[in-house]
Specification:
The complex is a heterodimer of chains A (114) and B (110). By secondary structure, chain A is mainly beta. Chain A is built from no helices and twelve strands. In chain A, strands 2, 5, 6, 10, 11 and 12 form a six-stranded mixed sheet that branches. A four-stranded antiparallel sheet of chain A has the order 3-9-8-7, with no helix packed on it. With 110 residues, chain B is mostly beta strands. In chain B, 0% of the residues lie in helices and 52% in strands. Chain B contains no helices and eleven strands. In chain B, the strands form two sheets. In chain B, strands 2, 4, 5, 6, 9, 10 and 11 form a seven-stranded mixed sheet that branches. In chain B, a hairpin with a 7-residue loop joins strand 7 and strand 8. Chain B starts with a strand and ends with a strand. Classes of the chains: A mainly beta (114), B mainly beta (110).
Chain lengths: 114, 110
C-alpha cells in the first residue's frame, strides 16, 4: 500500500525564519509526490510536485521540497517564512498503478508569527 | 479556485434526509473526484470518474452515490444522511499530474 505521513500536526515559526514541514512516504516503487496548501475556507491549491529528476523541486510562493530516497522523505521548505504562509499543508502521493488515486497526509498547520 | 465550481457552500441536514452536492468543471478534463476532509485525517477519496459515463469507488464510498452525466458535471448524492457524514466535501479535477479543487461544501448532519 502507498501512503504518506506528516508527523507534525502543527509547526510554529517566526516570520523571516526558515520553515520545514515534514513528509515521509511509503511506496514500493518510484513515487510521485505532491504538496498542496489550503487557506481557510478554500480548496487545496497545488504547490509543487516531484516526478523524477532533480531532488530539489521548486514550486509556487517561494516553496521548495527535497526528495530524499534513502530517508523516504519529501520535506517542504522555505528559506524565509511570511505571515501569509500560515495555512494547512498537505503532502500527497499518487498511486503507482492507478493514476486516478492520490493518498493524502493528515495535514500540518503552519503558524507564522510576526 | 478557478475551473471547479461546487454548490452549495454550506448545508445542514437532518439525519435521514437526502441531498445532492453539485460540481462542475470548465476545463474539459476527463477525471473528476469527490473527497471528504475530516480533522486529523486529511482528504479521503469517496468516488472518482475517469471519464464521462464511468465511476469508481474510492476509499470511503459507503453511504454515497455519484453521477457523471456529462464531461462537465460530477454530482455526489447522500441518500440518507448520517451524522458520520458531517464533513467538508471537495470536488476536484485532474490536470496533468495534479489536482484543481473546488472551494468545498461544509455539510453538517444533525
Amino acid at each position: 500500500a502507498q501512503s504518506v505521513a506528516q508527523p507534525e500536526d502543527q509547526v510554529n515559526v517566526a516570520e523571516g525564519n526558515p520553515l520545514t514541514v515534514k513528509c515521509t512516504y511509503s511506496v514500493s516503487g518510484n513515487p510521485y509526490l505532491f504538496w498542496y496548501v489550503q487557506y481557510p475556507n478554500r480548496g487545496l491549491q497545488f504547490l509543487l510536485k516531484y516526478i523524477t529528476g532533480d531532488n530539489l523541486v521548486k514550486g509556487s510562493y517561494g516553496f521548495e521540497a527535497e526528495f530524499n530516497k534513502s530517508q523516504t522523505s519529501f520535506h517542504l521548505k522555505k528559506p524565509s517564512a511570511l505571515v501569509s504562509d500560515s495555512a494547512l499543508y498537505f503532502c500527497a502521493v499518487r498511486d503507482l498503478y492507478n493514476f486516478n488515486k492520490f493518498y493524502f497526509g493528515s495535514g500540518t498547520k503552519l503558524n507564522v508569527k510576526p | 479556485n478557478a475551473g471547479v465550481t461546487q454548490t452549495p457552500k454550506f448545508q445542514v441536514l437532518k439525519t435521514g434526509q437526502s441531498m445532492t452536492l453539485q460540481c462542475a468543471q470548465d476545463m474539459n478534463h476527463n477525471s473528476m473526484y469527490w473527497y471528504r476532509q475530516d480533522p486529523g485525517m486529511g482528504l479521503r477519496l469517496i468516488y472518482y470518474s475517469a471519464s464521462e459515463g464511468t465511476t469508481d469507488k474510492g476509499e470511503v464510498p459507503n453511504g454515497y452515490n455519484v453521477s457523471r452525466l456529462n464531461k462537465r458535471e460530477f454530482s455526489l448524492r447522500l441518500e440518507s444522511a448520517a451524522p458520520s457524514q458531517t464533513s467538508v466535501y471537495f470536488c476536484a479535477q485532474q490536470e496533468g499530474n495534479g489536482y484543481t479543487f473546488g472551494s468545498g461544501t461544509r455539510l453538517t448532519v444533525v
